[in-house]
Structures are given as C-alpha cells and as structure tokens.
Amino acid sequence: MATARSPEMPRTARDLAIDYMALYYAARAGDELLVKALLERGTPVDAPDVDSAGEVSLQAVDFDSPLQAAAAGGHTEIVKILIAHEPWVDHRCCDGPAALAMAAKEGHLEIVELLLAAGADPTIQSYCGPNAPLCTPVGAARAAGHEDVARVLEAALRARK
After folding, report:
1. How far is the C-alpha of 105 from the C-alpha of 114, rounded, in Å?
2. For the segment 121-137, what is each residue's pLDDT rounded down to a tens digit?
3. FRET partner for 25 with CA separation of 20 to 30 A, picked from 15, 41, 48, 149?
C-alpha cells in the first residue's frame, strides 16, 4: 500500500501546481538545493494548465516562471539548472517581461547570454516600467544603464536578421 512518503504514490495536478509554486519561490530566493530537489521529484518548470487543479492552478499561472524569478534575481546557477530542464524561455504573463528582459534590466550579462543561447527572443516587447512603458530587452537594459548588456542584445538582434 502506498503511503504519503512512498515514491509510487501518484502526484495529482494539485500537487504539481503546488510544487511549481514552491519551485518559483526557491528560484526567487536563490535556493539551489531546493530547486534541485524539486526538479528531482518531477516538479514542472512551466506553469500548469489553468484548469488542471482548480484555484491552485489559477494562482500558479499568475506567477512569473521560476526561470523569470532566477533571471531577475541574478541566480546564474539556478538559471543553468532550469534551462537544462527545457522551460519555455519566453514565458510571461500579460505585458510583463520575459526572463530575458528581466535579466537585461538588472544587468545580469551572463544570464542574458545563457537565455539567448537557450533560444530566448530578444524582440519581445513588454512593460519595462514608468520610464520605458513598452520596450524590448535592449530598451530595458539601456533604461537601466547596462550598456554592456544592451550591446550583447543588439548583436543577438543583428544575428537574427
């Protein structure tokens, strides 16, 4: 008989949505050990289907992704771990920025390079704040004074043409 601790007990959609939110918080906090543990137990790196677990999944889809949280926080190792699990790198909610724009705005050059290598789209426009209402990651980097990041993003844009 399966117990609450046995690995053969199937996890429900609700369990997965809760684990996804825990992964978001762990990535945001820079807790590499917890991120790895959650991924090892099968936690999804992308948001659950909005209808999969009632109110829990509704709440989960309103979160930024764990990748966005790690990118914004400058947690390079966690970004690498998450990318290895093939998340949707351009995830964003509404007009909010994707992970690439978040990292660009904060000046996290290595994370910008990792996201570009993982296929992040540098052309996506999103809300970047009151001084740059709608901009691309280049605009987010420039508005925050990160010229080194802006140059890398401009090179990525030129390479796409």
Report:
1. 15
2. 999 998 877 766 788 99
3. 149
